Hints:
The structure holds three protein chains of three kinds. By secondary structure, chain A is an all-alpha fold. Chain A contains four helices and no strands. Chain A has helices at about 5-10, 45-55, 65-90, 105-115. In chain A, helix 2 runs antiparallel to helix 3 (about 65-90). The two termini of chain A are about 50 Å apart. In chain B, a hairpin with a 7-residue loop joins strand 5 (about 160) and strand 6. Chain B has helices at about 1-10, 20, 60-70, 75-85, 95-105, 125-140, 150-155, 170-185, 185-190, 215-225, 230-245, 280-290, 320-330, 345-355, 365-375, 380-385, and strands at about 55-60, 90, 115-120, 140-145, 160, 170, 200, 210, 250-255, 300-305, 335-340. By secondary structure, chain B is α/β, with parallel strands linked by helices. Chain B has 16 helices and eleven strands. The radius of gyration of chain B is 24 Å and the shape is globular. In chain B, the strands form four sheets. A five-stranded parallel beta sheet of chain B has the order 4-9-10-3-11, with helices on both faces. By secondary structure, chain C is mainly α. Helices cover about 55% and strands about 5% of the residues of chain C. Chain C is built from eleven helices and two strands, in the order H-H-H-H-H-H-H-E-E-H-H-H-H. Chain C has helices at about 10-20, 40-45, 50-55, 75-80, 90-110, 115-120, 125-135, 160-175, 185-195, 200-215, 220; strands at about 140-150, 150-160. Chain C has a two-stranded antiparallel sheet. In chain C, strand 1 (about 140-150) and strand 2 (about 150-160) form a beta hairpin. In chain C, helix 5 crosses helix 9 and helix 7 (about 125-135) packs across helix 9 (about 185-195). The longest helix of chain C has 25 residues, at about 90-110. The interface of A and C includes residues 62 and 80 of A. Chain A: GO terms for molecular function: RNA binding. Chain A: InterPro entries: CHCH (IPR010625), Cys_alpha_HP_mot_SF (IPR009069), Ribosomal_mS37_met (IPR033620).
Amino acid sequence: MKILPTLWAARGNPKEPVPFQEILPLKLRPFVSGKGDKTSNVCCIYEMSVLFGCLKENEFKESACPKEIKAFQKCFSDYNLQKRIKKEREVKGIMTPGEHKLPYKQLNKLLRMYPNVK
Amino acid sequence: MLKSLLTKLISGKPPLPAALCQTAHFSTQPQPQERLQSFRSSENNPLNHKDDHIGLFYTITSDVKKQLFLYGGLPKTYQTQLNTFNETCLMIRKPSVDIINCLKQVDYSNPVVRYVVYGAKGNGKSLTLAHIIHYGYEAGFLILHLPWVGNWMRRCRESSISEFKPGSIDINLDAAAWLVHFKHQNSHLLANSDLRTTQDHVWSKRESTPKDAPLSELVEHGINRIKFASQCIVILAEEIKRLSTAGKCKTLVVVDGFNAFFYPHTRILTEKKEVVHPKNVTVTEAFSNLTKFDWTNGAVVVAVDEIAIAEKDQISHLPRYLLGRDGFDHMDPFVPVSVPTYTKVEFQSCMDYYRERRWVLPLDGQDEELQFLSAMNPYRLMILCNSA
Amino acid sequence: MLIKPSNVVSKLQLISIYFQQNSMSQYPIYYIKPIYSRDKQNKMLKTGEAQKLAHIPTRAALNDQTSSVYHNDTINLFINYVMKDGKKSLARELIEKTLEKIKRVQLEKYHKMENIKEKEKVELNPRIILYQAIVNSQPILHLTPIKRGGVTYQVPVPITDRRAQFTSMKWLIEAGKDKDRNIRFHDQLAYELIDAANNRGKVVKKKQDLHKQCEANRAYAHYRWS
Lengths: 118, 388, 226
């Protein structure tokens, strides 16, 4: 390990308090990133558990649980339909007033409409 | 959900109508009170087959089939069809009816008439011969039937040097198998002890068949002593010619793939791996003898087939090309019988038969499409209907 | 004459549709797909739609898009899954022989039955057997790998129809390949299809095993994935 003075000399020996340097402008970005917005495929868990209960009783014979299977598949297709509708709305930019959780595309659209003018 | 999946899977069309889903209103055997279907003939005896019966199917009983075709005679693909359909039915077609009419009307005191059946691949030559064999059996002919010469010339099981004819090759295993076939087909006639040898035949120092021995003894000797099987066939051919000319029996010689006897590039090899010409095979002599016209009270029906020779030489299906110069000189003069593709009536009858046997699903526009796809060739039609 | 898709809003969206539809296509976007079924063609002639499409450039029909009576989309898909190295003719022959074998096996059963009622129960149409086999071996849900914190969990998740159909067809073909050296692929596949259509055999067991695994892993489904 290097002796302390040489370390300090390499780093220019800063002293507290460190002066603030404005490297990037002190402004919020005019858009929101869409990174954390992916929804997990968490859906139809109740129907799934009902289906599993029925299958376990009947030794995994599908012919014994037609209703449960139908319900499960209906739930999934409904979920997919909702997802597709939501996506189409995002693309078109339709917004419903009073919605509490906007997707990033719609937020960006709003931000573009009402930018932070300086 | 699953039902909708099922209907989607049936290429977007609604589920098949009930009529097509019905599996059985017909039974496998036509019942006596039902009217016979339009494609079947009630005449199962080839002795009575006439021009009116052309295009119709007739049934061969399983006993007759066992007797005649146990060791060959029906093509293998046709045999699988018969197993699936649970019955043995042949279509009555013009070439076989023509030959049957000739066989009925010919004067048997004249030298034998030779008929050469020819046609493109898959037109029905072998089945024509099968029909004629059945006719021969019903009419009491002694049948000398060679199911397929290609098995001897191009797929022989074993070849050896001949003892009796120096420079010749024997195909003894196949010859013995043929003798078994001959014995089986003509068991009812060989039991009749009228057929006896006309000469002494010496096989070796200790073995000989005396004069006036029953023919079946000669055949048995050939089967038991495989070493002498080929020679036995040659002698049998001579004996049968003499017996026919003497009037003891009327003979029908039927050979499928006869042109293989004249095609030089056989697959029989000597020990030195040289190709053997069919002239140098002992059995060829027997059948060349039989197909000459120097005997009476018999008939020779021969089929020439492209498939009996090597693929590179399968250029034409016509007899002059297939027999070659030697074959043509040998067979000339002969009656050529052409086996054409299906006529419209025959085609319709065939499709009706397949539909009745539940082999093909009835669909609109099926016949028209298959007519074009198969070009009315019976073999092609069979292949297409296999997956239909 | 460019035909614009009706739901285009912006240039970006137009390009995105272009890329979605034509990422590998040799044709420009305005080329329409051919209509080769005779029924559809007759319908369109009647309604007058055919006139509208008559002057639009059309893509060439593929080799298996026929106007034949025996045209079948499911079987074409199945043939494509069997195909290797682009040998479509071989794949087609194999499936044709499979259908033939199914017919022979079923007809043998049919002729063995004595009762007409029992005979009626035997399915002689090989296509129906194929559909039934595909439907019976489709899983209802499957496992997806979700990686969290260095561990990959197998989470049971509902399955789309397309994925289910693909999985079942793939399993059936794999079962056909899993055979003795002396047995032909088309024979083995025929036996597997008949078994699957009757809800027994290797493939249906594989599907049930998958369901059992999903049931065993059901705890992971309840977990709140970030």
